Amino acid sequence: MNEPILRVTGLQRSFVQGDVTIEVLRGIDLTVGKGEIIALLGPSGSGKSTLLQAVGLLEGGFAGSIEIAGKEAAKLDAHGRTLVRRDQLGFVYQFHHLLPDFNATENVVLPQLIKDKTRSEADDRAVALLTALGLGHRLTHRPSQLSGGEQQRVAVARALANRPALVLADEPTGNLDEATADIVLAEFLRLVRDEGSAALVATHNERIAAKMDRVVRLHEGRLA
């Protein structure tokens, strides 16, 4: 395996509902090498989204170790976790979550400005990514003027804008029809590979999972 960009060890997460403790993650061990694309396969309720939230440093309450690009997340304060998310991670969700008042280019520019890129650098990067995804003719369109597949392409470009070491994708084509989903997924995988990023892609679809470099299966909070 390539040098790991992500190393998860003994990850656990439980929730208390009334008198019942629900164990969602039960000791997850997972390593993702640089540039590796892994499918996280499992049915709804198996803990896929919870695992991605943990790896994405989006919420606390977890036991175990999450090491990203050589940094142990448990040792980082809130600001440190924010920097890891900004500098090392990209996120693609089932729903695009684009800013409705910004056009496609501006949605991809914004995370770069947060990372202190100049507007010119950010514009150039946004245009290059969107063009690579077949949206060179839709650069100034707002989300409401784009189809579902186009919106999701913009979300992919936004996730890759800051050249993340690891992209976390939660059912990234789950809100699209099958034909559009296949096209967007192929473009997502091509661009992630071209950029040299690693990716952890949560899906319940065996056919989609088969397109990744490696498949890990999550069942009742454990990796099979």
UniProtKB/TrEMBL annotation:
One of its GO terms (molecular function) is ATP binding. It comes from the Bacteria. Transmembrane segments: none annotated. CDD domains: ABC_MJ0796_LolCDE_FtsE. InterPro entries: AAA+_ATPase (IPR003593), ABC_transporter-like_ATP-bd (IPR003439), ABC_transporter-like_CS (IPR017871), ABC_transpr_LolD-like (IPR015854), MacB-like_ATP-bd (IPR017911), P-loop_NTPase (IPR027417). Keywords: ATP-binding, Nucleotide-binding, Transport. Residues 6-224 form the ABC transporter domain. Pfam families: ABC_tran. Belongs to the ABC transporter superfamily. This is ABC transporter ATP-binding protein.
